[in-house]
Amino acid sequence: MQTTLITDLTVREICEGFVYNQLEGKGLNGWGGKLIIQPEYQRNYLYLENDGKKEMAVIDSMLKDYPIGLIYFNKSEENKYEVLDGQQRITSIGRFVTGKFAIKDKFGMEQNFTGLNREEQEKILNYRLLVYVCNGTESEIKEWFETINIAGVPLNKQELLNATHSGPFVTLAKSTFSNSRNPQLQKWSSYVKGNANRQDILHTALVWVAKGEDNIGGYMSQHRYENSIEELKTYFDTVIEWAKMLFGSPKDEMRGLEWGELYEKYHSNSYNPAWLQQRVNELYADEAVTNKRGVFEYLLGGETDQHLLNIRIFEESVKKTVYARQTNEAREQGISNCPECAKGHENVRTKIYKFNEMDADHVSAWSKGGATDISNCQMLCKTHNRMKGNR
Ligand SMILES: [Zn+2]
Fold it and tell me: 111-123 pLDDT, tens per residue?
């Protein structure tokens, strides 16, 4: 049993001699007679359902240069192939190129293949399909099909990218980042989430070096035929060493943080690692900090953005108790129930706010050690609470 990945088969070649049987509703042959598109055991053509939305989507993807996924052929004899998986997509392509249906262009106008401009026609004809060809006995093929479980476990994004950009770069990158026996994997997994076999580590390394998910395809295509992954590897190691140097022994919450992004944003600042690590421990011990994962960026950013920590707020019952007490006292004294307003201008000095017009405030700020309990809670009108928050 052999499998071979073909990456240079074009739509032009596949559609050579394409025959669609209207009566039986199936694509019959293609690739100059070498390919049986719909062997007897296959399902009929289903992409016509829903007014042909699916077959239009195939063409649309191609025009936008999106991948349409892996296709599997079985090599039945010399120069004879059958489609194992992908007959719906191939039939869509063949039907479109032979003028069996139209797509809607960006102005909402229906266009069949010959109505497209020359450039778009060429784009479709030169579109390259990714085809796995397998060659073996019927039982081998069946077993293989079950193993890769095409219908059950679809390829994830990185697996698909690897197939699309296959070449020396991907081979080298996989031998480093997708190798579950790489001794460095344990260190990496303190910072990176996921499964090496499913390409999660490689995916993260690429996100980091390419500066974002959306740039991976471009990066892989640019380096596709290179025999070195030096840049990828060096960048990945640099980011992890930086995190390790600053924060010391890893904590669970560090796993899966956007370390690449943090590195880009903060690596030119200087920090005192001993102080950072002490602050991590203090913040971890602080019950008011409900988002431990935010601690690292909070510290890197100079302890300014408290939103990252999701500081625990006062409970509703505490707020109501404090509101009632403040409001009663204010009525007795004929002043506003917002202590800040009570010191202020004529028009708000005696204003009594409703409960939902006020917010709870730490009298002594959380960052200065103030607790989140009733002894440290006061109600302020929304305006004053916001003003205090911004200080
Ligand atoms: Zn006020």
Answer: 999 989 999 999 9
Tabulate helix, strand, coil % of the chain (nearest 5).
Answer: 50, 15, 35
Give the distance (Å) from ligand 1 centre to CA of residue 315. Answer: 21
How many Cβ atoms sit within 10 Å of the Cβ of residue 284?
A: 12
**Cα–ligand 1 centroid distance for 81 (angstroms):** 79
| 329 CA to centre of ligand 1 in angstroms | 16
Q: Which residue has the tokens 């920090």?
A: 271
C-alpha 378 – ligand 1 centre gap (Å): 11
- What SS3 state is found at 28? strand
Is 180 exposed, middle or buried (CB count within 10 Å of its CB: 0-12, 13-18, 19+)? exposed
> Across the chain, how many H-helices and E-strands are there?
18, 11
Q: How far apart are CA 92 and CA 70, in angstroms?
A: 15
Alpha-carbon span 362 to 366, nearest angstrom: 7
**How many A from CA of 327 to the centre of ligand 1?**
13
Question: Would you say the pTM of this structure is higher than 0.70?
Answer: no
The first and second tokens of residue 94, run together, are 């063949």
**DSSP string of 300-313, one letter each residue:** HTTS--GGGGTBPP
pLDDT digits (tens, 9 = 90+) for 29-45: 899 989 988 765 455 56
DSSP, residue by residue, 327-379: HHHHHHHTS-SSHHHHTS-HHHHT----GGGEEEEESS-GGGT--SSGGGEEE
